[in-house]
Design goal:
This is WxL domain-containing protein. The chain is mostly beta strands. It has one domain. About 10% of the residues lie in helices and about 35% in strands. It is built from 1 helix and 19 strands. It has a 4-stranded antiparallel β-sheet, with no helix packed on it. Strands 5-18-12-15 form a 4-stranded antiparallel β-sheet, with no helix packed on it. It has a 4-stranded antiparallel β-sheet with strand order 14-16-9-19, with no helix packed on it. A hairpin with a 2-residue loop joins strand 1 and strand 2. The radius of gyration is 33 Å and the shape is elongated.
Length: about 250
């Protein structure tokens, strides 16, 4: 190969290298613009109750089967549900005795399958202010007509809060009601907690059925208290929801 041929070959290789390592070209911007996304909120009018949810699995709606279930409150901050507490028929005893409550019977979301859950209360806060709330309870003494179940004490313990939300309120692990109408704290949701739907259940559900008794909800009756046979003793529990947390 002569001198001129070698020079020509070098030139070809150099040109090829430049082609391989040349910087890629970019498309030139010819214009830009902006767009928006928006949302407008309106108040929950507070007229539609929130369905009760399973206190052991708050993602599932349930339907209580108690025909005398308490009436829910209305408003953006509302008390959706509280359990009636049933101790059933018990044999008269002359000794101090503690009775255990029945579990709540509810229907699962299919409207057919029964489930037994602990005594519970449910609160919904749809105000959007994150201002917090408080739930309290009181009771009078158990009575059958004019006859009073003197000294009877109703205890709700082993309380568990549950929600799909995470801004957790605080609850009293034990609530003791002596029939003296003194208000007891149940749940306190300080500012920036307690939004959405919350249940507060007393006790656990482990394979409960219609015969099961909830050891976390009890009634202690002194042996010396007068007891009339075949009479139903009833107490009224007053549940109060306020927008004034601690």
């Amino acid at each position: 190969m002569n001198k001129f041929s070698k020079l020509a070959l070098v030139g070809i290789v150099a040109a090829g290298s430049l082609a391989i390592y040349a910087s890629p070209s970019f498309a030139a911007e010819v214009g830009s613009t902006t767009s928006k996304a928006d949302i407008t909120f309106k108040d929950d009018d507070g007229t539609t109750p929130t369905n009760p949810v399973d206190p052991t699995n708050p993602g599932d709606n349930v339907t209580p089967t108690d025909p005398d279930a308490p009436t829910p409150t209305t408003g953006k901050l509302r008390l959706d549900y509280v359990s009636n507490i049933h101790f059933g028929e018990q044999t008269i005893s002359g000794s101090d005795t503690t009775y255990k409550a029945k579990y709540d019977e509810v229907l699962q979301s299919d409207g057919v399958t029964k489930k037994y859950v602990p005594t519970f209360a449910q609160v919904t806060d749809n105000r959007g202010t994150n201002a917090g709330w408080k739930l309290q309870v009181s009771n009078d003494q158990f009575k059958a007509g004019t006859e009073e179940l003197t000294g009877a004490v109703l205890t709700l313990k082993d309380a568990t809060l549950n929600s799909a939300n995470v801004s957790k309120p605080t609850n009293a692990s034990t609530v003791i009601l002596s029939g003296n109408s003194l208000t007891q704290d149940v749940v306190n949701a300080p500012e920036n907690s307690g939004m959405g739907v919350w249940t507060n259940a007393f006790g656990k559900t482990i394979g409960a059925d219609e015969t099961s008794e909830n050891a976390s909800v009890t009634l202690r009756v002194p042996g010396e208290t007068k007891k009339a046979a075949d009479e139903k003793y009833v107490t009224t529990l007053t549940w109060t929801l306020t927008d004034t947390p601690d």
